Amino acid sequence: MFERALNAFWIALGAAAAAYAWTLGVMGPSGPDSGLFPLIASIIIAGSGVALMLQRSSLAPSPDFPRGAALWRVGGVIAGLALFAIGIPYLGFAITGAITMLILLRTVEQSSWAMSVLLAIASVIAVVWLFGHLLGMPLPRGPWGF
Amino acid sequence: MDAINGLMHGFGVILTLQNLYLCLLGSLIGTLVGVLPGVGPMAALALLLPVTFTLQPVGGMVMLASIFYGAMYGGSTTSILLNIPGEAASVVTCLDGHKLARQGRAGAALGIAALGSFFAGTLGVIIMTFFAPAIAALAIRFGPPENFGLMVLGLVCTLYMITGSPVKGVLMIALGFLCAAIGLDVVNGRERFTFGSVDLSAGIELLAVVIGLFGVSEVLSNVETMAKSTLVSDKIRGLWPTLDDWRQSWKPMLRGSGLGFVLGLVPGGGPVTASFMSYALERRVSDTPERFGEGAIEGVAGPESANNAAVAGSLIPVLSLGIPGNPVTALLLGALVIHGIQPGPLFVTQRPDLFWGIVASMYVGNVFLLLLNLPLVGLWAQLLRIPYRVLFPVVLLLSVIGTYSANKNVFDLWVMLGFGIAGYVLRKLEYDLAPFVIAFVLAPMLEQSMRQSLAMSADGAMIFFQRPGTALLLAASAVLVALMFRRKRKTEGGMP
Predict the structure, then answer these.
(1) Could you tell me the pTM of the whole model?
(2) Contact A34 B188 (CB under 8 A)
(3) d(CA B178, CA B217)
(4) Do B177 and A111 count as a contact with CB atoms less than 8 A apart?
């Protein structure tokens, strides 16, 4: 069911992208225009979606999506990375990294508080030292200067 | 100055304490960035370029070049041990390298990868030394139609990597094209698919795509089962391949070296394309293609040789003609200009110390890299001793740093996360992700060559059939597609 919905999505994506590419112009006075290449790609996407919809043999054998605790862990990692992207501009890399790691270790790994805090701080210090100091990479800093 | 005298002059330049130190340092950093997921040679070169400003041009260029080829060596390590490519040219090494590791043959895979890299790297430099002018002259005869034909052939070859439905593979290639079209049109600067977003106008960052698809999605798969099975927990032993491994690997190494060198020469080629094409070639010529993806040593030997040979090949147009074929060599070209050196055909005669110094440093660097990679592989393997609960957040931290380092833009982190989720779901539905990445990399050059060809043609698309080289490449592509679908039909029909 999910895969059939995805195939329908490919068809819709291909059709929408083709329509948009067409508005960019396919052939101009001096040759091919901006829309030609994406138009070809879009048509292939839509065509492949149709082929997949019609071709039952290409369906994956019952994809095993996570449930229960596994879903919680996968969701935890996604939420952790989202938190990273949201927090970095305000808190900097070190603080956001430590908080994210702490949350991941507590929720996904279910490590003890002490172990989680220790691992989170140690990992972030090691990574910041290696990239920020040794390699001189300008990591984003928070209001506390680190 | 003939090649032998030139090379001797180059060794005279490189064999000083400072230059040897810089070559070793570059090799070490290259290996490190190759090993670390998400920190590729491009980011490392960009970061370390300012460091070379204080050095003499020879030392600076030797260090930058050694980072480039050093990353090709190191990139295989995490591909094999962790199923996370250290850099894009090692993506394909994951397919069989990690399977071998999980079968308890990590040592053999790492050994073949390092020795294949050394063999191909050295062979590539030897060819570069003697045939650079002639080969470069041949490659620059390629016009846009020939480049288009070559890239089409490269993409068709990626279809041979697909283990599942070919239609899904074609769809992934087209998706790669479409994603690469986001941003400014390379020809006229017009915005495409940006919908007014400033972040999208710069296009989608390759590092964010690769790290998302191959790093984050792998972490998601692992935490789902919370299994440590993707990590190789056995002690790594037997770094020297067995006689049987050698028997299976020497031909792929030779083929990979030749293919990688030629693809490195041609604009649009380079280590990433070379490794993918080599894998496709090995699978195609194998009597037992079903072993590929299940732990075939040839699937490690060929691509790892190809990506190292491609480095030597890709340096030829830059050093002898001033034409970069990929982003990394473009950065090297920029470094030459910053050092006040005019790249181009006169570079070899005007700055023989620099040209031959770089060539000689590649001989030395390959020896350094072999020494760094074989005996020290145990050091990298220590990663395996770290429990997964520690490793996966660190992998995520490295992924964030690797992605962020490209543009210093938080938007790239969202792109990484999006591609990570997409990769996780698509893998469950048996979509191959590698064709997407190779199409994404090739798309700008493919589009440019297609549009240039059509613009210069009086007969529209007929130009692709009027030029013998292009016609040959496109005919070869068509034959390969036909053979692939024929083989697929046979497989589905249960025929041998």
Answers:
(1) 0.69
(2) yes
(3) 21
(4) no
